[in-house]
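Subject: Sanity check before I submit

Could someone independently write out the structure tokens for this chain? I want to compare against mine line by line before I put it in a report. The sequence has 567 residues.
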Amino acid sequence: MKNIRQFTTLFILILSVSLLAGCSLGADKQGDSVKDKLGKIKTENVNDPDEADKPAADEASQPSDKEENEPEPSPEDMYKADASSVFAEMADWSFEFASGAGGWGTELNVKPDGSFSGTYHDSDMGSTGPGHSNGTVYLCDFSGHFSKEVKTAGPLMYSLTIEDMVFDKEPDTEEIIDEVLYSYTTPYGLDGLTGEEDSLVFMAAGAVTSAINEEELNWLSPVHFGSYVGEEFKYIEDKPDELPFAAIINTKDSYAFFSSNISDKNKTFLVNRVKLPGLKNTVSKLNDDGTYRFEDENADSSFKVINTCYPVTDTYDMSNGAEKFVKDCLKHIYGPDAPGDDVLYVTSPNDAYFMQYDYVSICGGYSDYAFWYPDGSGGNSVCNGRFIFSPGTDKGSSYVYAYIIEADNHYPSKTFPDDSFANYWIGSLTFTGRTDGISSAAEGKGAVSMINCDMKAPENDKVSAREIIMVGIDNTELIKKYHLENADFDDDYEVVMPDKNFRDYTLAEGGDTPFYIQYPEDGARRLNYAFELGKYIKKYDEDDSRMMYLYLNEDGEVVYGFEEYTP
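---
Independent answer below. Compare away.
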């Protein structure tokens, strides 16, 4: 995988050729290379620091008064970014370079004028000697300025150069204070970058993670995109498609700084990786402080999604205080209609050994999972919810994220999706720094029917499937119809194929049609797009097929599907 510095050059060259030829860049496609993604990803984003400075489409298309033979602007001018806007965005985050293990780290804070300051620290209490029996501390307090020559390196990505940097203490000097040896050094992660053009890339929240090479990503993943769950502490990696926070990439050494939000606004948003066709957005409220509440429903309101974020002043331990945390969330969201203790079931990361892993981890952070029956235990309505507490740098900057699916089975002719699908879909949550995906509704027709089938691996925007019928050991009507009186009924059911021929079904969204499987390889992402599922099935199933429920729209196209439970 190419690093960001190479991406920057390729992006500029490719986009320059496109503009000079009068071409436009197309929409992002799942299978594109990273180089192509940088040229194709949408740039419309409320978090883009340069968005306010971009000309309107009709204004940009107006003929200019310049002479026809006037030379085109150079790439340096064409991709010059508004430094003040970029620095202002950087000032909303506190950056840190650390491995997540050990006590070392480099902290960096940027001011809106492009100046910065920070500290590198490390310690070795076992490194003692004459006069320093209390160990050794490695330290560097530094400050400096970024150059005002900031370039756009891709959507939500900006190339930076350190113009100057000074140190409070001369590097390679030492002194002993209170039996501790202080060894002064240079800042790890920024060492040797002064004057190195385009040596750093600032990635605003929402930038695509595919633009980060594997070595750089390794500095982010252990702490932020993975977690250890269950009795055996299995490591589950859950890398988001887009950064949920800002990052600074040292392209020279392949290092990466993660960040924490220090602004007075929420800048991270919980979204579902898949937007469901057939859902309509009914509530769309994005507040000035970055908190929000979005609601989406299907045609007969039997399937409803609530996605909300709100500020809190309380502090929660989701592992040890899961029930109190979830109950407080539900009181905030539902008020007096919050479910009572007799119908509410709460699980936490401590219960991961018998939970689905994807109910635990979201981008490496723990979530609490709960379900309840609004009309009483055993009723026809069921709700599923995931709840995340995000502690802030101070008491006023903590937030709660909640994603709830309400499914009502009272309607005899209820449209899809239904409550069984909700159990799968709630496992596809992720965080991002973009605001354009908070709603879970998508364009397109929703499902109106379902078939149970043996499905071949998706290929060429189609799947081949033959319908199957599961006959339970107590279903006397179907046993008689299919002459199963002498069948073995292993696991209390038999599989019947009335028509053994495979039929082709078109995927409504092509390769982006979502499929869910019971036991994904990584444990955390039960979602597979069609093209990913094809690779998965061919890798793990000798006959290249999988028993699936396929949901069809009124045109007979597959809008989504999930694997049938097989004991």
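---
OP: Matches mine. For the report I'm noting this point. Residues 449-563 form one domain.
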